[in-house]
Amino acid sequence: MTDLTSMTIAEAKAGLANKSFTSLELTDAHLAAIEAARALNAFILETPDQARAMARAIDAKIAKGEGGPLAGIPLGIKDLFATKDVRTTACSKILGNFVPPYESTVTSQLWRDGAVMLGKLNNDEFAMGSSNETSCFGPVVNPWRREGSNTTLVPGGSSGGSASAVAALLCMGATATDTGGSIRQPAAFTATVGVKPTYGRCSRWGIVAFASSLDQAGPIARTTRDAAILMRSMAGHDPKDTTSVDRAVPDYEAAIGKSVKGMKIGIPKEYRLDGMPAEIEKLWSEGAAWLKAAGAELVDVSLPHTKYALPAYYIVAPAEASSNLARYDGVRYGLRVPGRSIGELYENTRAEGFGDEVRRRVMIGTYVLSAGYYDAYYLRAQKVRTLIKKDFEDCFAKGVNAILTPATPSAAFGVGEKGGADPVEMYLNDIFTVTVNMAGLPGIAVPAGKDAQGLPLGLQLIGRPFDEETLFSLGEVVEQSAGRFTPPRWW
Ligand code: GLN
Hints:
about 15% strand; alpha/beta; Amidase signature (AS) enzymes
């Protein structure tokens, strides 16, 4: 579209401040881009009237010299975030017509700071998936294609709509959530920057729950700086979420461009997988070399329990999901399929409302929590989780500031290509990301290069608890070294 959609948030803030354009113009440019990109299926609900009303209101404030740190910036919102008076479905048929009478804390903070909502973004149903193919609204299309091919690729998941929309210049940034990799993996598949904050950094209040001990909200943006700007507004203590932490929110943007000299960067040997594509190996060494050139010190580290992370995650996450999803019964809100008894109403509603992957998780979760299997599966997985966390703690105790890994084991794949016969094939996408959720740590995915077919690849940096600032400083070094990547427009 026009130039107004290709700016970064930082650039747009400057342009709004010096009156080069208004928020209404910026918003209109993005609304037009969204309309022209419906083939991507990134937005499942466009809210143009609301967007223009918000933009006009903020323009009036800007004219008076008011307006917060995100004044006039148009954003997309993952459909997992409750938005007051705006349909919120988690991309599940079971919530099909739900219009929340309240606003999630994270989105309310974005509006407090002056951002403009363009609409709601597609995601995997209840955020369960790695390709955005489980959404009841259908798959999201990745704006990236293999060179010389028009095969439709997935944008990753579950925040596929967020990643695709940000990469395709439909919004300047987006909210996303990450339970096992859902911010970082789609960011890596679309050459965007995704941040999964420390558990407790952002409030979970008003976000549709998947696995409450793992879920965190975070931003997807086009640059590390933009991600830092968004994070500052999204983070903060919320008395309505008892797991949110009462700690001052730093000015994350100040960490951009800070020297990383003398920082110790851990390279974990357990992330060097058998059969990992040579391109990923190469990207990883390149990333390490960039950090070294910027003055960081590379150290080999060991995270010995890494291999148990994925199996343990696929016990803990479904267990919590099966409990969280018990509330969808057709009685209070969403879909209701009648039956001859209340029991039958529950059964009919849940059978009709949940998709296959969600049903699989509910069944696995119910099984691992059942009286006969609780100790063997759930309790064991919790113990493994503690060991995974301890691996990281041991590493940080030795002075390591952050850990560098690939973000994903491959580049984006084709729609329908993975997980059909074997769900584990899909689950393996999160092999490098789930450890971070299990340990409650912050992680960032930054675009770092392309594969031989021209598809983007990302690197991940994992930090100490509540040390997102170090990740922003290091992420900026990777971004400056790798350059930025934008998909050629074909839609
Ligand atoms: N792909 C993982 C899953 O399906 C992670 C999803 C997420 O982070 N929300 O559970």
